[in-house]
Amino acid sequence: MTKKNLQNTSSVHTELLISVMDYCLHGTIVIDENYRVIFWNQWMEKYTEIKSITAVDEQLFTLFPHLMGKRIQWAIDDALNRGNSAALSQTLNNAPLPLHSGMNKNEAVKQAIFIKPIGIQGENRFCVIQVQDVTSSLRREKLLRDTANKAEDAKIAAEKLTEVKTEFISTVSHELRTPLTSILGSLGLLCGGAVGNLSAQVSSLINLAHRNSQNLLALINDLLDIDKIESGKMDFVFANMKVTPFLEESILRNSGFASKHNIQFNITPAQDDVDVCADGNRLMQVMSNLLSNAAKFSPKGGAVEISTTLTNNKVRISISDHGLGIAEDFQPHLFEKFTQVDSSNTRQVNGSGLGLSITKAIIEQHDGNIGFNTTLGEGSTFYFELPVITTNADIRKACN
Amino acid sequence: METFGDLQKDLLAEAFNLGMGRAAASLSEMVHEEVLLSAPEIVFMNKADAAKELGRQSSGDVSGVSQDFSGSFGGEAMLLFPIEKSLELVRLLLQDTVPLENLTEFEEEALNEIGNIILNAGLSSLADLFKQEIQTELPSFRQGSCEDLLQVNTNTPSDNESVLLLRVDFKLEKNAVDGYVLFLLDIQSTEALIDNINIYLKSINVL
User: Fold this and answer.
1) Which residue does chain B place closest to A151, by CA atoms?
2) E strands, A300-368, where?
3) Most buried of A140, A342, B45, B175, CB within 10 angstroms?
């Protein structure tokens, strides 16, 4: 049955349906059980440059001999003999039909093909082959893949660079620390008069070298701590401890900062002391950082207040100074690495800019949180909160 | 389901494995690599249990291909994998290395075709065995939770639909991926399938 015959024997509705198939935006071929073409729509005419009048009544494999024995033939046979429908993807079949669009005659049209059996009056078997042009979708996907591949390459390169940088910092820090320790030891002996009295000029220079060596050692220790935090290798030894004696000890240990900056640490102890589960040495590092910051940024002759409050099973330890406060645009970056309020080369206050970043990481390892309140011109309060231990079960849970 | 015993199970497994062999041959030719397919396990269960079984094998959503079929028994056939396995399978078959966490449009299309080949082969093997006609519809890509894809109604569990569940192993030269083929059948189709199996077993004098 040719397209013409189909039309002659059909009702108006059938003719309408044939027109719809003729004009639809996909290729449509109908073949019979002998692979004979009985319908070939306008899309197929356009994309194959084979007119319907030529195609109809020809065998599909006479028109396209290269399709014999290929996946498309298996699918057609499967539809005609078994009643199975098939979807042939562009990816797995790579444009089996020789289709070309008007846009680029040299580029084969990428295609998705759908094959479906059609039974009319029980016995007669037909098969409809529908073809979709997926060239532009494929182009979009290629763009997406290229972008994804580039992003992946950039990510790998950035990770590699970070790894190299971290390793470099770690190695250099270790290599610097050993000689620096002996330099510090020697300078300490000189300052302490171990080789006799020094002239005022020499003593001043030796003191300067000693102070700066101490700063350098602190920076190296901070770098090593950051490296441990980032690689997850910082060890913690948790134990149950009382807060008030710990705070008193921290003030004692940091009294050097107080006298150096000519300020006073004032502690307001809690009415009832509480227990926390903490690594005492690491928590002392937190206190030293917060107390030294408060001392550094306080006006000379001023005071820093240390207080304890209890809320919702948490103890909050606050350290308040009466310094300049922190500018609003700087606040979001305070806990980032290498952050200094004054990052200029001529800054007045020393520090690596790593202390608060390390402090935050240590507090978070204690299931705690850290924050601050600040008012420009009035001062800042830094606080951290830790879970309070009340029962033996809490101790076991927290300290494990 | 007292009439679905070991004998019936063995017959279905044998028929499906013939189908899987045909599907594997087609896939091997298409991807120019030897693909081996087998269905080592087959079990009848209700939809809720099938969803649970699939959920046990997958940490999250599943993805795959669904195809309706009709004939002397009808229903919906599915090939499902945990999402990461479907990515693995398609990328192994296509030797694709795109660093994306989801299937791209064309990978979905390829998975559709792979599912289509396997489900058609499985259903044809049953049609051949019972000398019955089974027509299949075009495949469509599916992704979601096991319950959603199997349309399990947790409020009013129904025993009116059962699932013929097969584990399918894909073996490529260096890798193996396993997924599931499911046939969702209503009560009439389940009975028709079992009738067909029993008629066949009687015809070869083993029942």
Assistant:
1) B99
2) 303-311, 314-320
3) B45
Residue B176 belongs to domain spanning: 6-203
A vs B, Cβ pairs < 8 A, gives 86
The residues, ordered by sequence, that sit 6+ positions from B190 with a Cβ below 8 Å of its Cβ are B1, B44, B73, B162
CATH number at residue B183: 3.40.1550.10
**B1, part of any domain:** no
Q: Which residues of A touch B114 (CB under 8 A)?
A: 92
Q: Does residue B94 fall inside a structural domain?
A: yes
Instruction: Give chain B's domain count.
Output: 1
Q: Which residue does chain A place closest to B133, by CA atoms?
A: A82
pLDDT digits (tens, 9 = 90+) for A107-164: 789 999 999 999 876 655 899 999 999 998 888 888 988 898 899 899 999 999 988 8
Which residue segments constitute the domains of chain A, with CATH numbers given?
3-133 (3.30.450.20), 154-230 (1.10.287.130), 239-399 (3.30.565.10)
- Say if the Cβ atoms of A141 and B109 lie within 8 Å: no
Which residues, numbered 20 to 79 in chain A, qualify as contacts with chain B under a Cβ-Cβ cut-off of 8 Å? 71, 74, 78
Q: What is the pLDDT along chain B (207 residues), one digit of tens a residue?
A: 446 788 888 898 888 899 999 999 988 888 888 889 988 888 888 888 888 888 887 778 899 999 999 998 899 999 998 888 888 888 888 877 777 777 788 888 999 999 999 999 999 999 999 998 899 999 999 999 988 888 887 666 566 788 988 888 888 877 888 888 999 988 888 889 989 999 999 998 887
Residue A235 makes CB contacts below 8 A (sequence gap 6+) with none
Closest chain B residue to A138, measured at CA: B106
Residue B39 lies in a domain: yes
Residues ≥6 apart with Cβ < 8 Å to B8: B194, B197, B198, B201
Say if CB A51 and CB A45 are below 8 A apart: yes
Identity (one letter) of the amino acid at B119?
Answer: L
